[in-house]
């Protein structure tokens, strides 16, 4: 797939279709950011919506195989977080150094960063807790939802929406 993408990308840059070389590099950074985000949110969806409910139905069966998932999952999350943070900072620098970022853009970006920071914290605290079997009920169950994989997924969904708003706000500012 990359075989076709790279020459196409270079030709597009050459023809000025994506702006200058700097704009072309931002396309790659944006691509990395989106890939990291999709992998992380997709991984959270897998754990929150598939593994956890399956564990509720068959705790012993899932318990026997879960050890094989958690290692690769952890590595994927680590790589995604590194990619997201590095690329996110570059995108932020790129947006905020021009004259086009409005106050609303800055406010929405700040909210996005707060939710993202909370997601990073969630990963850290879920790791500390380990993969605890879900045999709780009542208030503890609700709290575990609030601070578990489903919450991570909800955070990711919100951050995606905020990213869409950011793009719309920015494009409105530069066109109008
Ligand atoms: C250090 C944390 C982060 C920073 C500094 C950051 C920064 C940014 C910036 C500046 C943009 C460009 C918005 C625009 O179009 O004006 C962006 C886009 C985006 N961000 Fe983040 N972000 C961070 C974390 C996250 C996280 C945790 C997710 C989701 C898991 C995420 C998902 C996205 C998506 C999907 C886009 C749209 C990419 C595109 O338009 O192709 N970001 N981010």
Radius of gyration: 20 Å
User: What hetero molecules are bound to the protein chains?
Assistant: protoporphyrin IX containing FE
Number of strand elements: 0
Regions with little confidence, pLDDT below 50 for 5+ residues: none
Order of helices and strands: HHHHHH
- Domain unit count: 1
Query: Separation of termini?
Result: 37 Å
Major beta-sheet overview: none
Helix content: over 70%
Query: What does the overall shape look like?
Result: globular
Number of helices: 6
Report the β-strand fraction as a percent range. under 5%
Mean pLDDT value? 86
Structural class: mainly alpha
What can you see in these coordinates?
Helix content is 86%, strand content 0%. By secondary structure, it is an all-alpha fold. The protein has one domain (2-175). Helix 2 (21-57) packs antiparallel against helix 3 (59-97), helix 2 runs antiparallel to helix 6 (149-175) and helix 4 (103-129) runs antiparallel to helix 6 (149-175). The longest helix is centred in the middle third of the chain and has 39 residues, at 59-97. The radius of gyration is 20 Å and the shape is globular. Bound molecules: protoporphyrin IX containing FE (HEM). Protoporphyrin IX containing FE binds at residues 30, 33-34, 37, 40-41, 84-85, 88-89, 91-92, 95, 113, 116, 119, 156, 159-160, 163, 166-167, 170.
